[in-house]
Design goal:
The protein has 258 residues and is α+β, with helices and mostly antiparallel strands. The chain is built from seven helices and 13 strands. It has a single domain, classed as Endonuclease/exonuclease/phosphatase (Deoxyribonuclease I, Chain A), CATH 3.60.10.10. α5 runs parallel beside α6.
Length: 258
């Protein structure tokens, strides 16, 4: 069984100061996917870059202190090479890290924020379409796919505390929800909903209005797999009590096909 955790840490240097290394040592994930690292590889604290038994990989944005993704994987998994998405429009912002494991391809993603008034909505939707094309190509090659990370999209009303009040806000715009619906309808599974159909489960909370303490949040961090891979998923858990970011980690346990 393999444990894969995704977490938008809202700055890996800030998270390191808040106990990220101690948490990794305690939880011992097989793979840890990080988003919004906001650091060049050489800026990542050594205590995170150099963890015994793990190999670390980092893809940063060209703009300093912005975006970026990272991955820590157990040496026993044999991961040595990682790839970008292959689309310069998004690779320049460090949005995707691709890792091939056996017959499974893991895509660690930090989706763009569509921003107030949908200012970046066209860019975000272009990213979503490019990622979808990549997933479809991988499946056509006979590979299973796991897309994890911060999607910056709440798919359905159940996925945020105040859906009516947020219909014109970034992350819940109709165009974003429509894309997510098309994605899952094309043969992909939101794994958390395989196990939990109840409301009130969120992965991001605003720093304002005491939102986290009151659990007024959004579920925007996902593990999505292709239909065939879903039978290998054993559990998904939102680690809502873990602090250190405005997001919390989400863990999936699954069998990697060989």
């Amino acid at each position: 069984m393999t444990s894969i955790i995704t977490w938008n840490v809202n700055g890996v240097r800030a998270a390191s100061k808040k106990g990220l290394r101690d948490w990794i040592d305690a939880v011992k994930p097989d793979v840890l996917c990080l988003q919004e690292t906001k650091a060049l590889p050489e800026q990542v604290p050594e205590e995170i870059r150099e963890i015994p038994g793990y190999t670390a990989h980092w893809i940063s944005a060209e703009k300093k202190g912005y975006s970026g993704v990272g991955l820590l994987a157990r040496d026993t998994l044999g991961i040595r090479d990682v790839f970008k998405l292959g689309d310069e429009r998004f690779d320049c912002e460090g949005r995707v890290m691709r890792v091939d494991m056996e017959k499974l391809t893991l895509l660690n993603c930090y989706f763009p924020n569509s921003q107030e008034g949908g200012m970046r909505l066209p860019y975000k939707l272009a990213f979503c379409d490019s990622l979808f094309d990549t997933c479809q190509s991988l499946r056509a090659e006979g590979r299973n796919v796991l897309v994890c990370g911060d999607f910056n999209i709440a798919h359905k009303p159940i996925d945020l505390a105040n859906p009516k009040n947020n219909e014109k806000n970034p992350g819940y715009l109709p165009e974003e929800r429509d894309w997510m619906e098309r994605f899952v309808n094309a043969g992909y599974v939101d794994t958390f909903r395989m196990f939990t159909q109840d409301p009130g489960h969120y992965t991001w909370w605003s720093y304002r209005f005491n939102s986290r303490a009151n659990n007024v949040g959004w579920r925007i961090d996902y593990h999505v797999v292709d239909d065939a891979m879903s039978k290998n998923v054993k559990s998904v858990e939102i680690l809502g009590t873990v602090m250190g970011s405005d997001h919390c980690p989400v863990r999936i346990e699954l069998e990697i096909p060989s």
